[in-house]
Amino acid sequence: MKIFDCLLFNNELDLLEIRCNELKGVVDVHVLCESKITFTALNKPLNFKENQRKFNDFNISYKETPPLNFGWSWGNEWFQRNYIYENLLSLNPEPDDIVLLSDTDEIPNKDTLVNLIKNFSDNSVVLLQDFFHYGINCFCYSYPIWHGTVVTRFKNIKYPFSDIFNWSSREIGLQALRENSRGTPKAGGGKNDDAYPEISNGGWHYTYCFGVKGIQEKLRSYSHSEMNAPEINNTNYIESKIKTLKSLNPQTQDWKFKLIDLNKENTPEYIIKNLEKFNHLIIKE
Prior knowledge:
Layout: E1 3-8, H1 13-22, E2 29-35, H2 47-50, E3 60-65, H3 73-82, H4 84-89, E4 98-103, E5 106-108, H5 110-118, E6 125-133, E7 138-140, E8 145-153, H6 173-181, E9 198-199, E10 203-207, H7 211-221, H8 235-244, E11 257-259, H9 269-273
């Protein structure tokens, strides 16, 4: 049985390094895709491809996602996540192989994952992850648990359409796994009865952990286009929110943050062993 780590990548090189080291010896292949366009259809460099040599020590299967624009940011995101399946298929997985699905900044806890896989059933589950914002030491205590990495078997991934032009949907394939992990209502409303069991101590979600310029780039690029308003996406505003540990949009995300001391209980081992290297990801008091 093999374990495939499927992830959607934009520019999170530091977090990818942390992820690959955290999962070393557990994951057989990291299955990574990236596109030349953002979810908002802006042109972007192929950041992993340009830095691929830095990851030569890891088994990473890389595939470029076709730069298709479906006319809206959510459709583009769903397509780009669903397209990871093409990369996964090229590796000839067996029906009972384990598949992880995450964004790059959703890093599974290695120990929890190992224990889970020892007695894994055929049912998909979601790893609950500690939520950090702006920096790897800035803990969101008002929203402490994030529904992050999905763990499933390959045979549970369903694509009713072979034509990739029909993959801009949240109700098929890998995107459906992610939707069910959050209990997202089905199209047309109503309760989602497919929501997955939750596994505690599932890892870390490090969002916006790449400095002001990186945050501005994310706001221009990702599906929450309402966050790309000029009153939010400007240097002074973002710097003030980081300094005061406030949410970028308190009207919709009234999150509360606090700085914590990093230790082996609350932080991936690779970070603890390389604190100087990742000092730029730490918010200073």
